[in-house]
Every structure is written in structure tokens, then in C-alpha cells.
Amino acid sequence: MNIAIVCYPTFGGSGVLATELGKALSEKGHSIHFITYQQPVRLSGFHANIFYHEVRVPTYPLFDYPPYETALASTMVDVILNNHIDLLHVHYAIPHASAAFMAKQILARHNKAIPVITTLHGTDITLVGRDKTFSPVVKFSMEESDVLTAVSENLKQETYRNFNLDKPIEVIHNFVDVKRFHRKSAPGAKSLLAPNGEKIIVHASNFRKVKRVDDVVKTFIKINEKIPSILLLIGDGPERPYIESLCRDHEGCARIKFLGKQEQMEEILPLSDLFLLPSEYESFGLAALEAMAAEVPVISSNAGGLPEIIIQGNCGYMSNIGDTDDMAANAIKILSDLEVHKQFKKNALAQAEKFDLHFIVPIYEKLYAKLVPLTLS
Ligand code: GMT
Q1: DSSP string across 214-266
Q2: 174 Cβ below 6 A of ligand 1
Q3: Which ligand 1 atom is nearest residue 92's CA?
Q4: Gap from CA of 134 to ligand 1 centroid (Å)
Q5: In degrees rounded to 5, what are phi and psi of residue 164?
Q6: Most buried in the list 55, 115, 270, 334, measured by CB within 10 Å?
Q7: d(Cα 255, Cα 328) in Å, to the nearest integer?
Q8: CA atoms within 13 A on the CB side of 162
Q9: d(CA 285, CA 305)
Q10: How far apart are CA 40 and CA 37, in angstroms?
Q11: How far is CA 45 from CA 30, 50, 110, 355, 370, in A?
């Protein structure tokens, strides 16, 4: 099939998932056309049947707000007409689903019918999308998509709760390429980061308020009082200056390292002993799943879809949002006993394997085949 995928090209989970899906589909022989405003961060290297179409938004003195959605819809039309595209799969509703609706209408005038799948990822529903500035358009474009999918049961229920939607939503959980993350760490790297055998604790996010990165720091400080540890903070975003000042006010500051945005998570995660994700909300928590694939147990909040991927007391622990005492106590339980840690690591990998791309990608392919029956081989 020739499939067009629209996503955010940045480090956010929706862009990561969309890019990994495109890569996995291309390996199965499909031709993938990414339509984004920048090359997706996870799309490195040459892939013979992956194509990247950049959305260019011309500047003009009149435009205080460059009309990205119009440029995106026009690029969709152009790519679909000129590359025999069978199906359009958009990730994150805003503004991708409404641009897809517009493109579909234009294409109909060219006698080209194009099925549209919209995958909901989280904040497009639970935060931004439900704001009344956007919600009428988000609701309409969800209703007009041929198929709606959500990355967790929790997000499906949140969508029904926030929008009075009369349309089925299919849950297709996010996935991970376990073999990519489950690898040995580079020799010597761990001792460079933790020269005295400290435990390595990792958090990765876009440093938005919803991630509660201050809870990461608070939890780490409590762990470090009992078990000497190093905290690696990966990613960047609006909360970073506040988090940096929070760390500087603390004497354990030298043990907290800001690594910034990192493309090769598969090289860092295998060095880690524990992953922290105390978010206010996660529709799924792809970052936690990638950590588990690298055999890293997870300490998280019990928000949103996290209970769909983490098994309490097996591959990690979940606590109430903001309960950093409980998070630290659970982390100490895992880290203070080598045998317990080993078991949690093993369980984390086994749990991640249930979400391996080999199980999930065929679900998307089946869905595509239902929408594009003539191209079924
Ligand atoms: O994590 C973020 O804030 C970025 C956001 C995105 O859409 O790029 O992530 C959302 O989608 C991910 C992939 O489906 C999920 O794993 C994240 O849980 C979800 N984030 C939230 O719901 C806050």
C-alpha cells in the first residue's frame, strides 16, 4: 500500500509512534510518505520506500499567524494525487484531522476517494482539544474521520467523556521495537556516569507541567538519601528553567544531570536502573514502555493509561499523583535488593514484549486493509 502519515516531527510521543509505525510498515513492503513541517526526529538514515514531504508555510507581512493548516491540507492533496496514495493516517487530532477533512473534500472533486484514519494520542483530547477554542473543530473532524483509534482504553473513555461523540473508537495500544532497546550498554559508559557505582535513575519527557518533573526531582532526592544515585533528566521544554533552579537549590545538585534532547534513547536506557514518570496524566506512557523494553523498571503515577502497561509490584510501581514519598519508598524497595531488582528488570522486559511491534503493527495493517480492500494482496 501507499500510505501517507501526518504527525508532529518532534520528540513528543505521538511523533515517535507515528514515525516508528511508518518505519515498521516500510519494512513490510509498504511505501510510506511522511507529511510534516520538519524531518521527524526518529527518521534517520536511508529507507528505500520512505519519502518525506515538507509542509512549507510561506511568510507574508499580513500573517501574524502563518496558516499552517491550509498549507498542510494543500500538501496532503498534492502528495496524495501525485503518489497514488491509498490511505491517509493522521496522528494527533489538532490540526491534522481537520486538515485531513479539508483535503478529503478537495480530493473528492478530483474523483479521488481517500480513507482517513485519525489516531488520538492524549493531549489532543485531554488538554488542548477539549478547550472550547478548539473543541467544535476537533469533535467535527473526529466524526468525519473514517476510523478513529486511541492509544489506550483510558484515552478512549476520556474522549467519550470530553466530547459527546457518537462514533466507535478502536483501541490500538502503542508499541515498541523490543530488540532495538534490549541491548547491552556501551562498555565503560555506566562507570563514567556513575563512577562510584551509584544507581542511575532516568526521566525523559517534554518538560511540560503535565509531566510533574518537580516530582521527579523530589522523588530522586528521597531515593538518594538512602541509596547513592545519579539522576539523568532527558528532554527539554517550558519547565526546564524552573527545574534547573529547583536542582540548584539542593545540595545533591551535582548528582542531577540535564542531558537535553536525545535521539538515541536506546543507548541511554540500557545504562539505567530505574525510570521515573510521575505525570499528572499519560494517555499511555510510551517513554515508560521504551524503558521497560530496555529492562528498566518504572516508578510512575497511576494516572490515565499507565495502569494498562505497568503491572503493580511486578515491573514497577504506581502511586497516587504527587505522592513522592510512596514513589521513593517503592524505588528504594526495588533498588536496595539486587535479587528484587533483577526480577523487576526481567518482568519489565517480559511486559514490554507484550507490546512488541510484531503484535501491534499487524493490527494497523488489518485496519488499513479493511479501508482499502482493492489493494489487498
Ligand atoms: O507526552 C507528551 O506530552 C507528548 C504527547 C504527544 O502527543 O506527542 O504524548 C502523548 O502521546 C504518546 C504517544 O501515544 C503517549 O505515550 C503519551 O502518554 C501522551 N501524553 C499525554 O497524554 C500527556
Answers
A1: HHHHHHHHHHHHHS-EEEEEE---TTHHHHHHHHHTSGGGGGEEEEE--S-HH
A2: yes
A3: 7
A4: 18
A5: -85, 75
A6: 334
A7: 16
A8: 24
A9: 7
A10: 9
A11: 17, 10, 35, 25, 31
Residue 36 · residue 71 · CB < 8 Å: no
Say whether pLDDT at 349 is over 60. yes
Query: pLDDT tens digit string along 235-268?
Result: 999 999 999 998 888 777 889 999 999 988 999 9
Strand partners, 195: none
Q: Is the pTM of this model over 0.85?
A: yes
Domains of the chain: 2-175+357-376 (3.40.50.2000), 178-353 (3.40.50.2000)
Cell of 103: 483535503
Section 113-129 average pLDDT: 92
* Helix, strand, or coil (residue 161): helix
Name the 3-class secondary structure at 143: helix
Q: Are 232 and 203 in contact (CB under 8 A)?
A: yes
Reported as a pLDDT band with limits 50, 70 and 90, residue 188 is confident
Residue 17: CA count within 13 A, CB half-sphere: 27
Average pLDDT, the chain: 94
Q: DSSP string covering 326-346, please? A: HHHHHHHHHHT-HHHHHHHHH
Q: What is the DSSP letter of 356?
A: B
Give CA–CA dist 194/75, Å, rounded. Answer: 48
Of the residues 123, 162, 174, 321, which should be mutated to test ligand 1's pocket, given the most ligand atoms within 8 Å of the CB?
Answer: 123
Angle between helices 357-371 and 13-27 (to 10 degrees): 80
CA angle, 86 then 89 then 95, to 5°: 130
- What number of other Cβ atoms are within 10 A of residue 51's Cβ? 17
Cα(123) to centroid of ligand 1, in Å?
A: 7
Tallying the residues shown for the chain, one arrives at: 377
